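Internal tracking record. Fields below are filled automatically when a chain is submitted to the structure queue. Please do not edit lines marked as system-generated. If the sequence contains nonstandard residues, flag them in the REMARKS field before resubmitting.
Queue: standard
Priority: normal
Entity type: single polypeptide chain
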Amino acid sequence: MKRNTFLRIIPTNMRRAKKSRTVRIALLLERQLGYCRGVLTGIKRFALRHPDWIFREGLVDARSLPWLREWKPHGIIGHVYRRDVYDSLSRMKVPLILTTRTLHGIATPDVDVDHFAVGRMAAEYFLCKGFRNFGYLGSGQALFSLERERGFRETLQQHGFDLGACHMEYLPMPSFDLNWWRLDKAVERWLHKSPRPLSLFTANDIPGRLLTEACQRLELSVPDEIAILGVDNDEYECDLSSPPLSSIAIPTEQVGFTAVKMLAQLLQGEPPRNLHPALPPLYVVSRQSTDHFATNDPVVRRALQFIKEHVTQPMTVKNLWQYCAVSRRILERRFQSVLQQTPLQAMHRARVEQAKPLLKNTRLDMNTIAGQCGFASTRLMTAIFKKRTGQSPALYRKNLFVG
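SYSTEM-GENERATED OUTPUT FOLLOWS
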């Protein structure tokens, strides 16, 4: 549907909303997905302040549409990944906000994550662990998967590495005719051909768990032979995986809150300036599936392990080269050769990544966070955090606040 066609329908719906005592909003989200549960949490925060808004949930399925039309919603928020459902919703001529960029060739307003940045974050994470072999498993059709693959690939290419990819098509709710056996065999054949040790990035946590199961069948050690990183930080998927799956956390609550705020503006006849916001990913939640340093250099491996174990404590580069029993010059040279960064940069990165979850998930003051992340002072934490992320810790926390 063309953008201008969409905007022309807003006054009609706005008048309908004004004549009604309540605003009816349909939510087409799949609760079994951790991503959608996070989106619903963000929507709930908005709903608490707007008791005149009524929300009803339905499945992303054509069979849900008859009751939806009968209910006559003023607006719809949907995690719509099926073309037939999208086409039917478009014909209803009510404001629609999507929470996934899956389908090609549509201009409907949406709120989602910066998928290219997700891929870049995955590449940087594996590069800092010394990996030299990389793979990607995801959809070859869904826009979000293609963008994550592109971000992953282009970042690796900037460091002189290639990427091997395996494409598989899957849906949050698999169709009844899906051949799981054929899907598993395709993944296994790809794993057999891939070099090791291999770092594997998956489009989200669902294929990530599938990969850990495939490695079990093939008797491949995770993470020693194959390290696996997903996206969404869906605790159900990550904890059900064996070993537990590392994953990139994304701001799902912020997606939901932003989507419902956009819908409120549209219903008031005030289209937002940006109808397609892309929110940056948060950080990597490391679990056992990536608990491995792939470098063969014993000095670099020993130094990385020291940084990991002492990230919450004050430490200096001198502590590193003394612990590794080499000169500072040798340590610097080996880090540059293996990781293309200095030991100090590796320490700064580890501390910033330690700070991000504390800024998002706690209300600890900056002095406490700086101390728990091994920074000598709040001022130093602010300077290093801003250099690495482009924003201060306070602004990072403020931008994550939902509601």
